[in-house]
Amino acid sequence: MKALATIAGRRAVAAALLGFATLLPLGAQAADPGITDNEITIGLFGPLSGPLIAYGIDPLNAAKMLYEDVNARGGIHGRKVKLVIEDDKCTPNDLVAVVKKLTTVDKVFILHGGSCTAAVAAAQEFVGREKMPMMMLNAAGDNAVFPPQRYIFGSFQGTQRTYASSLTEFAQKQLKAKRIAVIVHDDDYGRANLATARAVAESLGMQVVAAERIPPNITDVTAPMLNIRAAKPDVILSGAYPAPAVLIAQKYGEYGMTDIPLLQAAQGIPTPSVFAKNVGNDAVLKNFYHTWAFNDIGDPALKEKWSAMYKKANPGREPGPFMISGAPSALATIAALEKAGRNVTRESFVAAMESLDIKPEIMAGPIKFGPDRRDGLRHMLVIKYDGKTQKAMPGVYSWDGKSGM
Amino acid sequence: MSTIIVQAVVSGIVTGCIYALVALSLVIIFKTTDVVNFGGGEFVMVGSFLALFALVYLGVGYALALLLAAVAMFALGVTFDAVTMNRIGGRLYTRQTELVPTIVATIGLSYLLKGIVRVVPYTEEPRRIPPLFNAPPIFVGDVVIQAQDVVIVVATTLIMIGLWAFFRFTMAGRALRAISQNARAACLSGMPVRTLRMVVWGLSAGIAAVAGVLFAPKLLITPDSGTLVMFAFAAAIVGGFTSLPGCVVGGIVLGVTQNLVGVLIAPQAISVTPFFIIMVVLLLRPQGLFGDAIALKKV
Questions:
Q1: CA angle, B113 as apex, B107 and B117 as ends, to 5°?
Q2: Distance CA B242, CA B267 (A)
Q3: How far apart are CA A357 and CA A351, in angstroms?
Q4: Count of domains in chain B?
Q5: Cα dihedral A94, A100, A105, A110 sign
Q6: What is the mean pLDDT of residues B183-208?
Q7: Chain B interface includes A226 (CB < 8 A)
Q8: Which of residues 27-86 of B touch A (CB under 8 A)?
């Protein structure tokens, strides 16, 4: 009997040890790096120097402002957000180096950064291997979110597909267009834009009468604009970047095409006043529209509210036009951290992001993700801009998640 | 269709003249020093930004802004030669040019200028200089010609003629041609080789500034505008890297062909057109349309 008791006792001790040994690594796994009882460390980065600095400083400051605001309200589930800020210069090499440093040296909990799609796309492999959640700051291009990568969430301002779909839908619903001309760059973004415009146009019973693909470094847009003029479209959709977008608008005016509405995707008109000045003739913009992902233009009180918040958080600095683009990714990150609860891990954060569906007042539509969806925003507003004033057009336009894929 | 073709040709001539102006600034350096200036595009870019700043911040008139930009760039060109090229060559600078160090130096110049401009506020977005004449466009049938386009064509022609006359008829120009043939012999004959080479670098940078001011209303300026130099190299190669009229013809051939390819084939083929033309010219006539026959130089 004593022997049996001894054996049973030994078994119990062994089972307890085994259980303890099994639980120990589980407990260690649960505590991902960068999170303690009272702090969550987030690696925040964007272009803070270099030619694309305008896309980085204000958006990053806006994100920082929102994290500081959360901290002032007591943090997330009792934890304060600690930021480690880095400059990625918007180049793939620098961004990958920053991501590696934040992950392995600073050991942050999650990454939040990236204003340029190509640079973000370069980090996909490392982020996937390290199982490190990464929220894109304000990069929005298709390459970073199609095909979806488990740990990368972004495009909070819509992808090229959303731009193209929204403008095409607007052309049909508001401008009653039947024949559209599309001018895009001869690269991945341009191809995505064109494929979506074609698909949406077809589904709405419109015809693409000219599809011009131009080199991103084009110096003379005479040829594509002559081709478009010859096709006699009802509207022109442009997915061009800032410099070619100005050349297109200039030629559009030069060739007397201003009775045809010109619809420009947002990336070509980063600062509307500079765009108008570069075009050089406001009369050219009498029929000009562009996409916009935020409600600030249509709601001056909202714009003023965000501007005041920014100026309070960043004394002496006027918010630039891109400031607001840093907000949605921070709002989504905060919402997902809150949703994941006190026992958040990187995996549970990813799960919280995948089921996120929020509608901040500043956004044109909901920010939503899913198991197979990593692009946050699929709704867009269209703004009429005459060189002096911007006016939000009625309606919200969207991409169905399928057209052009 | 004929109107479209004519419009494409007219616009191509204007764009070609811009390429030609930049090509002229490259060719006068190559003609006299055997140096291929890979920083030539950045001379154009800096010149146009200087003119823009003079217009915006100093509030000067267009002509004065152009003059200030040209003078400042002349000084920059002279300084670059004195500080860099002269030192790289050392005493050898009066002999045959050392190819690799000089090329590396001009590439360094390109990066340096681009880097400096990028940290200057106001350069983050594309900018434009207002056109010299804000006159209404000229209509020839359905073909539109902007007043600025006429200015570009006239300015290019005048600069080309002026440079041709300088090299042909002036003592300094003749001396520079002699230096290009045999710098050491020219030096032994008492020619101020170093000074003349500095003047050529200054002249080249000044012409680049003029090109920058003329193109800025049409093509916009960004810190990366210097990439335009690739088209200028193509124009110079097509025309012949030692020929001034050749540069102009080469630039126009390039500009017109690009537009015709865009209209008749596809706009996405525009960017490969210059390189295709370069290959054809190098295969059929390596010295270019107007270049001197290739020959070994005596050194």
A1: 150
A2: 31
A3: 12
A4: 1
A5: positive
A6: 89
A7: yes
A8: none
Across A215-240, average pLDDT: 92
CA-based nearest residue to A167, from A404, A403, A397, A405: A397
Residue burial B203-241, b: 16+ Cβ < 10 Å; e: rest: bbbbbbbbbbbbbbbbbbbbbbbbebbbbbbbbbbbbbb
Contact across the interface for A278 and B128, Cβ inside 8 Å? yes
* C-alpha span between A81 and A62 (Å, rounded): 15
- Spatial distance between the Cα atoms of B213 and B210, rounded to a whole number of angstroms: 5
Give yes or no for A273 touching B (CB within 8 A). Answer: no
Place of tokens 């088209």: B231
Q: Is B52 in contact with B275 (CB distance < 8 Å)?
A: no
Q: What's the confidence (pLDDT) of residue B295?
A: 55
Stretch A61-76: mean pLDDT, rounded?
A: 96
* Residue in B with minimal Cα distance to A214: B268
Question: How would you write A202-250 as a 3-class SS string?
Answer: HHCCCEEEEEEEECCCCCCCHHHHHHHHHHCCCEEEECCCHHHHHHHHH
Query: CA-CA distance, A322 to A271, in Å (whole number)?
Result: 8
Of B291 and A158, the one with more pLDDT:
A158
Is B158 among the domain residues? yes
Residues 6+ apart with CB under 8 A from A362: A294, A295, A296, A302, A306, A324, A327, A328
What CATH architecture applies to the domain A160-292+383-398?
Answer: 3-Layer(aba) Sandwich (3.40)
Contacts (Cβ under 8 Å, ≥6 apart) of B195: none
Evaluate whether A244 touches B219 at the Cβ level (below 8 Å).
no
pLDDT, mean over chain B: 87
The mean pLDDT of chain A is 90
Residue A168 has pLDDT above 80, yes or no: yes
Cα–Cα dist A139/A149, whole Å:
15
Fold (topology level) of A39-157+299-374 = Rossmann fold (3.40.50)
DSSP-assigned letter for residue A364? S
Task: Show the tokens assigned to B281.
Answer: 């010219």
Give the SS3 label for residue A395: coil
